[in-house]
Amino acid sequence: MSVFPYIMNLSDILQSKYGFDKIHAGYLFGLPYIISAASSPFLGFTIDKVGKRAFLICLSSVLLTLAFTASMIMPECH
């Protein structure tokens, strides 16, 4: 659930830190939802076949933390 506050502020972050206009920031704002909707059935099927759900949950938390950290330390650009 920690991803939701980040995503809700993502449009403002993209506009202020990276210089995107509102339209392009809005497109990028919706990208996580589109990727999630498209990949969920395939990932769910794969996880059901492979197993190791606890490991994959821990791995996803680590990857999410790395993504947030990379987003915070990236320099501003326009």
Description:
This protein has one domain (3-73). 85% of the residues lie in helices and 0% in strands. It contains 3 helices and no strands. 0% of the residues are buried. The model has no long low-confidence stretch (mean pLDDT 83).
Number of helices: 3
Unreliable stretches covering 5 or more consecutive residues: none
Give the total of beta strands.
0
Total number of distinct structural domains: 1
Rg (CA only): 15 Å
Features:
mainly alpha; 78 residues; single chain
Please describe the topology of this protein:
Elements: H1 3-18, H2 22-50, H3 53-73
Helix pairs in contact: 1-2
Short characterization:
By secondary structure, the protein is mostly helical.
